[in-house]
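Re-running DUF4332 domain-containing protein to confirm reproducibility after the cluster update. Everything else is unchanged from the original entry.
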Amino acid sequence: MRNFIAKWFRKPDQSVAPQRAEAAPIQRSKPRTARQRRMEASLASLRLLPPSLVRQLESHGLVSVKDLLNLNLTEWASEQGLSKSHQSQLRTVRRAIRMAMSLRVMHPRDAYLLIAIHRRSPEDVASDSPRHLFRDLERFALSSRGRALMRRIEFPSIDRVSTWITAAQDHQFSHLATSQSGGASDLQTTSHSRSAR
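Result of re-run:
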């Protein structure tokens, strides 16, 4: 009887460690890419639109670069009764954003400046020379519109202009290589289908 009682009142074996629940792995969010950061940038931070227009956009939940790119501009402008001037500014800023997205070394403000001197695409920039483009920028900076724009946009050095052109040429070459490889793939597929007949 004593042994039976001792069995039930015996202290638990201290050598067996209690089991611990395994900690759940920590979920870490992936770092944002440069493109994502650009898309999330606020329209106000670009310093390219009149403050009144920025406030109007923000009042309708349009606060980021992504919002502007996804906006049906024609429909929204009609609903808001936007002036032709404001519509033109929004279209130009959107074009500048897209160019800067294509050429990562460029800020939308830089692209906006290039569009002002009729370089509206990476192809236009790629076909230019640093000195010629720099001279055109200097002439524009002396105009009344250019002086107004230079209050918001830093005038670039010739080295910076050269960087834009190199990036535009690389972009053009990359697109050409992609289109050629796509054409070769299509040709190979066609030849295979013919030989299979």
